C-alpha cells in the first residue's frame, strides 16, 4: 500500500511533452466524439417532429347518438360525424377506435387510449332543433384526455380530436345553412349555423394532483434506472479496488491493495451478490424521497416497492454482466444500453406512436420502456395487469435471466481460456 508523502521519487514527466504523443489522444478522442454524435442523434431524433412521426395513435370514437335521422337523411348525425372523422384523418397517423361508452371508460382506465371524442345521446335532435323554435342548447361534442399517459401524448390526442370535431362541425354547418336558406331563415341564424357545435374538453381518467401532469412515472423510473446504473458501476469499481485489481484514489491519496487470486466468474458472483443487497437500500431510499418526503401520489405501496426493487436489481445485474464482458469500456456500453438508447424509446415523455420506427423497435426490448409501463400502471391505473404491469414483470424476468446467462457465460469462457486478470499468472 502506498500513499502521498511516502518518500517515493517525484514524477518527472511533463504534461506538455506527453501530450505530443498522438497515440495518447486517439482512443479518448474517438470514443468521446462517437458518444457525442450518437447521443445527439438518439436523443433529438426521437423528439424533433412528433406530429410528423405519428403512427396509429389510439383514440376512442364513441357514438351515443341513436337518432332518429333528420328528415331526408338515412343516418343519424352521430353516425355521419364519426364516419367523417375517420375518413378525414390520415389512416397512418391515428387509430380511431369506434367503441362503446363502457369500453371507452375501460380503455381510459387501463391506459390503452390517449383520449376520446364522444358524440352525446340526442345529438341529432339537438342539431335539428337549431333551425326551429325548439332549440334550447347548442349541440356539444366532448373531448376526453388521459393525462396518465403523459402530458404530451394527451395533448397530441386532444389537438387531433378537437381539430376533427371542429371540422365535423363545419360539415354539419354547411348542411344546416343549406337547409335554413331553403326555408328562408334570417341571415343572423344562418351565420350561427355555419359552426353550430360546441366542443368541450374534460379529463377522461383523472390522476392525482401530485403526479407531475403524468410525468412522475417517467421520473420515478429514471431514478430507479440511474441509481442502479451508477450504483452498479460504483460496486464494480469498489470491488476491483478492494481485490487489488485497480488503484484506489481519493484526492491526493492513493492506495493499492494486495491482489486477491480470484477467478472472473467468482468476481462477477461477488459483484452481483453485493448489487442484490445494496439495491434493497437504494430502491427503498428512492421511494422514501419521492413518496414520503416529496409527497408524490402513489398507491399500492408494497407492490410499488417490490416492482422497484426487481427493476433496479435487473438493471444492476445487467451493468455487472456488461462490465464483466467488456472490461474498461463496459461502462460506456451499459450507459448506451440502459440510458442512451432507453430514454428516447421509453414512450414516457413522447408517445411511442409519435417517434420514428427505429425507436418503436428499441421499445420492444429496451428495459426503460418495460419499467415505465409497470410503474405507470401502479401509479395511475390501479395496478391493472393489462395497463402494462404484466408486460413489465415479464420483461424484468427476461432481463434478469439474460443478465445472469450473458455475464456468467462470458466470465466462464474467459476463465476456461486462461484469460486471467492483472496480477495473476497461470499455475
TrEMBL record:
<feature type="transmembrane region" description="Helical">
    <location>
        <begin position="303"/>
        <end position="326"/>
    </location>
</feature>
<protein>
    <submittedName>
        <fullName>YhgE/Pip N-terminal domain-containing protein</fullName>
    </submittedName>
</protein>
<feature type="transmembrane region" description="Helical">
    <location>
        <begin position="393"/>
        <end position="414"/>
    </location>
</feature>
<dbReference type="InterPro" id="IPR022703">
    <property type="entry name" value="DUF3533"/>
</dbReference>
<keyword id="KW-0812">Transmembrane</keyword>
<feature type="transmembrane region" description="Helical">
    <location>
        <begin position="273"/>
        <end position="296"/>
    </location>
</feature>
<comment type="similarity">
    <text>Belongs to the ABC-2 integral membrane protein family.</text>
</comment>
<feature type="domain" description="DUF3533">
    <location>
        <begin position="33"/>
        <end position="396"/>
    </location>
</feature>
<keyword id="KW-0472">Membrane</keyword>
<dbReference type="GO" id="GO:0005886">
    <property type="term" value="C:plasma membrane"/>
</dbReference>
<feature type="transmembrane region" description="Helical">
    <location>
        <begin position="24"/>
        <end position="44"/>
    </location>
</feature>
<dbReference type="Pfam" id="PF12051">
    <property type="entry name" value="DUF3533"/>
</dbReference>
<dbReference type="InterPro" id="IPR051328">
    <property type="entry name" value="T7SS_ABC-Transporter"/>
</dbReference>
<feature type="transmembrane region" description="Helical">
    <location>
        <begin position="332"/>
        <end position="352"/>
    </location>
</feature>
<keyword id="KW-1003">Cell membrane</keyword>
<keyword id="KW-1133">Transmembrane helix</keyword>
<feature type="transmembrane region" description="Helical">
    <location>
        <begin position="217"/>
        <end position="235"/>
    </location>
</feature>
Amino acid at each position: 500500500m502506498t500513499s502521498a508523502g511516502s518518500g517515493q521519487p517525484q514524477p518527472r514527466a511533463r504534461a506538455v511533452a506527453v501530450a505530443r504523443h498522438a497515440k495518447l489522444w486517439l482512443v479518448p478522442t474517438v470514443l468521446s466524439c462517437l458518444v457525442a454524435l450518437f447521443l445527439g442523434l438518439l436523443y433529438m431524433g426521437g423528439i424533433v417532429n412528433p406530429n410528423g412521426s405519428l403512427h396509429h395513435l389510439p383514440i376512442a370514437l364513441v357514438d351515443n347518438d341513436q337518432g332518429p335521422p333528420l328528415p331526408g337523411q338515412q343516418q343519424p348525425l352521430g353516425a355521419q360525424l364519426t364516419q367523417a372523422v375517420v375518413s378525414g384523418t390520415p389512416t397512418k397517423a391515428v387509430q380511431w377506435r369506434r367503441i362503446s361508452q363502457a369500453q371507452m371508460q375501460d380503455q381510459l382506465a387501463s391506459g390503452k387510449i390517449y383520449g376520446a371524442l364522444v358524440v352525446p345521446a340526442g345529438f341529432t335532435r339537438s342539431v335539428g332543433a337549431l333551425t326551429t323554435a325548439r332549440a334550447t342548447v347548442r349541440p356539444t361534442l366532448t373531448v376526453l384526455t388521459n393525462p396518465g399517459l403523459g402530458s404530451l401524448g394527451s395533448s397530441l390526442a386532444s389537438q387531433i380530436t378537437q381539430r376533427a370535431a371542429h371540422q365535423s362541425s363545419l360539415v354539419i354547418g354547411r348542411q344546416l345553412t343549406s337547409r335554413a336558406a331553403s326555408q328562408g331563415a334570417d341571415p343572423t341564424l344562418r351565420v350561427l349555423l355555419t359552426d353550430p357545435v360546441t366542443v368541450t374538453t374534460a379529463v377522461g381518467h383523472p390522476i392525482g394532483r401530485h403526479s407531475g401532469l403524468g410525468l412522475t412515472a417517467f421520473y420515478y423510473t429514471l431514478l430507479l434506472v440511474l441509481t442502479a446504473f451508477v450504483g452498479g458501476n460504483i460496486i464494480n469499481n469498489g470491488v476491483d479496488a478492494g481485490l487489488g485489481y485497480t488503484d484506489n484514489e481519493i484526492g491526493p491519496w492513493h492506495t493499492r491493495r494486495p491482489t486477491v487470486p480470484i477467478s472472473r466468474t467468482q468476481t462477477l458472483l461477488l459483484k452481483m451478490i453485493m448489487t442484490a443487497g445494496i439495491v434493497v437500500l437504494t430502491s427503498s431510499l428512492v421511494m422514501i424521497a419521492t413518496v414520503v418526503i416529496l409527497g408524490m401520489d402513489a398507491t399500492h405501496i408494497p407492490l410499488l416497492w417490490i416492482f422497484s426493487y426487481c427493476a433496479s436489481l435487473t438493471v444492476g445485474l445487467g451493468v455487472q454482466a456488461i462490465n464483466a464482458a467488456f472490461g474498461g469500456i463496459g461502462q460506456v456500453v451499459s450507459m448506451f444500453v440502459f440510458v442512451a438508447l432507453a430514454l428516447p424509446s421509453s414512450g414516457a415523455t413522447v408517445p411511442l406512436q409519435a417517434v420514428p420506427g427505429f425507436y418503436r423497435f428499441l421499445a420492444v426490448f429496451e428495459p426503460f420502456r418495460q419499467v415505465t409501463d409497470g410503474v405507470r400502471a401502479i401509479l395511475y391505473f390501479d395496478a391493472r395487469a393489462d395497463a402494462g404491469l404484466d408486460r413489465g414483470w415479464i420483461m424484468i424476468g427476461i432481463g434478469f435471466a439474460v443478465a445472469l446467462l450473458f455475464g456468467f457465460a462470458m466470465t466462464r469462457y474467459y476463465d476456461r481460456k486462461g484469460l486471467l486478470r492483472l496480477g495473476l499468472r497461470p499455475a
